[in-house]
Structure formats: C-alpha cells, structure tokens
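Worked example

This section walks through a single chain of length 482. The input is the sequence exactly as stored; nothing has been trimmed or padded.
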Amino acid sequence: MSDNPAVARLFERHGPRYRWFATVTVMLGTLSVVLASTIINVAVPSIMTQYALEQDQVHWLATGFLAAMTVGMLLNAWAVARFGSRGAFLLAMGVFVAASLLGGFANGFPVLVLARVIQGVMAGMIQPLAMITIFQVFPLHKRGQAMGIYGMGVILGPAIAPALGGVLVDAWSWRATFFVVLPACALAMALGRAFLPNHREAEAPRLDWAGLALLSLGLTATLWAMASGLRRGWLEPWLLSALVGGPLLLIAFVLWQRRATHPLFDLRVFATPGFGGGFLLSMAIGAGVFASTYMFPLYFQQVSGFSASASGLMLMPAGLAMAFIFPFVGYLTDRWPLTGLVATGLLFFIASMVLMRAADPTTAGVWLVTWAVLARLAMGLMMPPVTTGSLMMLPPALISQGSGIINFGRQIGGALGINLCAICVQFFSDRYWQAYPEAGHPRAFEVGFDDAYLMLFIVFVLGFWPLRALRRGERRLHAEKS
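Given that input, the structure is written out below as tokens.
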C-alpha cells in the first residue's frame, strides 16, 4: 500500500490488482510516444526524397524529438506537482495528439520538425511519470520485475513499429506514420482518467523558467552547430557563435541549477555514490539504442537496397528479442549483480557494431537481422539494471528527480548519438564519393555508415569506465542492507 492518499484510495477501490491497472495505463501511454519516436525512421528515405534533404538535415526528425524530450523530462516533476499525475498525463497526451495531427498534415519540412519537437516535449513529460507510478504502487523487492514487464510492453511497440511504418510508407505515405499512433493515445487517455491518482501538491513549486531557457537554447545551439558545420563552414560567424555559445549556455544551466530554489535538474542526486556512473551509462545506452535504431533502416535501404517495408520487417526480430528479454532481465536485476548484466550488454553491443562495420552490400539479409538482434539483446541486458539500480541508490525523496535525470541522460545521449552518426555518414560518404565517383552511391553510403558504427563501438568500449562507478555504488547499497 502506498503512502500517497490518492494512490491508497485507488487500492481500496480496485484491490491488489490496481498496481497492474496503473502499470498498463502508463505502459500504454509510453508505448504511444515511443512508437511515434521510432516509426518515422523507416520513412526517412522517403522524406529525404520528397524534400531533397541530406543526412545532416533530415536527422532533425529524430534529433529534434529526442532533444525536446530532455526538456520535457525535466518539466515532469513540476507538472505532476502542479496538475497531479492524472492531469499531467492527460495534458501531455492531448498536446501529443495535436502535434501528431500537425505532423501528418505538414506542408513543409520546418513544420514537420516543429511537430516532432512538440511531440518530443510531451513524450518527455510522460515517460518519467511511468516510472514514478511503478515505484509508487510496487514494493521495493518487486520493482525490478515490474520494470521488466513494463519494459516488455513498451518495447513491443517499437518492435512492430518499423514493419508497420514500412508497410504504411510503401502502401500510402510517410504521413501515415503520424496518424497510426492516435488510437493508442485515445485509449491511454481513457485509462489514465480512470486509474491514475488525481493528487496534486497544495503549493506546487514555481517553474524554473531561467533554467528551462538556458537548457533549451544551449541544446539547440550545440546540436545545430554540430550538424551544420560541414554545410556552412566551421568559421561562419553564426555557426561559430552557436558552437561556442551552446556549450557555454549548458555550463551556465548547470551552475544555475546549483543555486535555483526549485531546480529542474537537482544536482543532489549526483552526491549519491554510483548514480553518476548510472547517468553516464544511460547516455551511452541512449546513443546506442537510438542511433542504431535510426541507422539500421537507412543502411538496409540505402546500402543493401531493401524496400521500406522489407527494412521494417528485418528490424522486427530485433525488437521482439529486446521485448521478450526485458522481463527475464528484470527478474535477474532483483537477484544478480547489476554490473554483470550491464557488462554483458556492453560486450554484445560492441560485437554487433564490429559485425555491422564488416558488412557490405552483398551481405545476406539474414546476417544483418542477426546482428541487429544482437544489438537489441545488448540494450535489453543494460536498460533495466542501469535504471533500477541507479534509482535504488537514491533516498526516497530524490527518486522523482533521479527518474527524470536518468531518462534525461538516455535521451540526450540519443540526440547526440544520432546527430554525430548522421554527420559521420554524410561527411565520409561525401568524401568517398568525391574521391571515387565511379564507385556508386551504395558504396559511398557504406563507407559513411561504417565510420558511424565505429564511433558507436568506441562509445561502448568507454562505457566500462562508468560501469566501475556503478559497481561501487552497488557494493555500498548491499553493505548498508547487510
């Protein structure tokens, strides 16, 4: 039974089954937004063709969404205090539906990116709410299992999203990828009205508008400068200003959070040993899962020559493998050392990147599918223990902030990963094409993707360093319990 009066009343009304009603509700809401975040990846080549875009431009459909999610995640704590869990959930889902309609009917690429950014902010508000709800309704010794089951449901959406998106793109248009999530959104809103607590704080903290502005401007400037440098020239005045000013604004954001009365980013969580390692691992996981999810369908279409629907179907086994391993890993998270699971995941992903880099246009589709499965198994082994382990190290009063920050790390890692991978693909493809124009576009694209896979390989090799910090935090936690 929860200490929250609103949650306790819902337990009295629905009995012990309520915790599963609440889990299904937040799982469906998260599934809707995660589905929207990944289904568009298969449609990227079609959008590139329609609007005559290059890799370093079209990636904003994914990067803009993920960067906006980081802002939305830091709004979560304020929104829940101001509107209550139910109100914040319904508000975010409603605006998400409106943004999906805007994207589906967009008549230009800037409007399309705007729709994705709005979707991202709302998705960022919804995802931490799911973990907060699970921590409210499940006792400590069952949270790992609950996170595994929740994760399985959430991952099932992205597992079928590429295949569904590919079929929609080939049969109709990329616009269908915006409309297909609307029924799930409507059902999530109906369940949220029935099963999410309506409790809100008597005096909600004021929103840190200064911190929000510093973070938003800093992220936008940094990501834009990184993506536009090759096209505009690194010494172009506006770009150079953004390249220097963006990181400075992010530093100013961190400094501001140290003195803000109601910070968006509560730095006290990093005083807990091991949490910083979990945060860095979350960034690496974000770079791996989102960048590979973005690149695999492009590689299958632009290098291997598969259609959008075939590319989507090729990704389905990987998504299903990740979905079905989640409950098993959640079970192990409650019983085995966290760091052993994470280390295995790091090694699996490193192996996947080595194999993908060794592929070429003649590589059989079955091998590409197998290596994509290996990458998703790696994510399945890493995500539950890193998330659950990082939050278990925190005192109860900081779990809400810690949840948002762990998700923040994963999303900012994803935004940076996609941004850098898109730049790698464009730069090395162009350089190879200029040197060997007779080689053809597939070969030039292959060279670019190979270097992007190499970059992800390096990121995950470096992931063993924060894993050591997470292990120290895990040992401290066990010592306190014994």
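What to look for: DSSP finds 18 helices and no strands in the chain.
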